Every structure is written in structure tokens, then in C-alpha cells.
Amino acid sequence: MKIHLGSHKKKRLITEINMVPFIDVVLVLLIIFMILSPFIGQSQIPVNLPRAATSAAGDDDTPLRLKITRDGDYYVGDARVLRNDLENRLAAALAKSARRAVLIEADRDVGFKNVVLALDAAQKLKAAKVGVAVLPIEAAPAEGEAPR
To answer: What values do phi and psi take at 69, rounded to 5?
Structure first.
């Protein structure tokens, strides 16, 4: 004989879908799409730009190369320049484009004072940017090897 001290109900299986995780996933996807939609919309808008006789892109954006050889010779572009005339020749080359940058390519054995003289001349002339060219370590030639 069995004695029951309380009412014992049968356990029923829950057959309903738990909506909380579903809502969390939907909200995360909504946020992702809201963030990405401006970027997607901008890249797919076709625009046919009109043509013009003059354009700002016509300015020479390539940097003006100022080379300093091992012997201390200066070259603006491919023309050899005397040290005393460096600032005048650099000014003439920079006058062609107001936003032109100067890239100094100095031999690694050049004295520091020669590079500083070139940097100083470029900064006096208010070049848009002044930089010093270097080679990455893996592309640098070995001690006795000629540069590429």
C-alpha cells in the first residue's frame, strides 16, 4: 500500500519556443546591418563625373627627388646642383606645384650635415611634405653588393 503525502502532478514537456535567445540574435543582426548600411550604400551609387579642361588631379603628386651621393653631390631630379645653389634650384622645382613633397634620397655613407642642409632647405621653402627614403631591411643590399 502506497501513501501519497501531497498531490503529485505529472511533469509535462515544454513545447513552447523560448523567444529570448531568438530576440537577442535578431537585435544583434539589426545592429550589425545598421552599422554596415551606410558603407554598402555609398559604394554602390554610380556617379558619372563631368569632364573639365583643368583639374586638380593635374598637379604632379609624385615627390620631387633630391639625391645626395656619397661624395656629397646634390641632384634635384636628374640635374646636378651646387651646394650654394641648392635652395634656389629647389625653389624653382617646387614652384611648379604648391603641394609637392620632397623626398631626400641620401647615400647611407653621406655625412649628417649634408642631409640636414637638404632638410632645412626643403622646410624653408615650405614643401608640403619632406621625407627621407629608406629601403626595407629584407630589400637592402649586402655590404659589398651594388644597389638595385
So the answer is: -85, 175
Cell digits of residue 70: 656619397
> For the chain, what's the residue count?
148
Please report how the helices 86-94 and 112-124 are oriented relative to each other, as an axis angle in degrees rounded to 10: 40
- Interval 44-96: pLDDT, tens: 555 555 676 655 544 556 788 888 888 888 888 778 888 888 888 888 888 87
- pLDDT above 80 for 124: yes
State pTM to two decimals.
0.51
Could you name the CATH architecture of 60-134? 2-Layer Sandwich (3.30)
C-alpha R_g of the chain: 35
β-bridge mates for residue 68, sequence order: 74, 106
For the chain, the domains span: 60-134
CA distance 105 to 69: 9
Strand-strand pairing, 64-68 and 74-76: antiparallel
Of 17-31, 64-78, 85-99, 133-147, the poorest mean pLDDT is in 133-147
Provide long-range contacts, Cβ within 8 A and 24+ apart, for 110-114: 110/68, 110/69, 110/70, 110/72, 111/72, 114/68, 114/72, 114/74
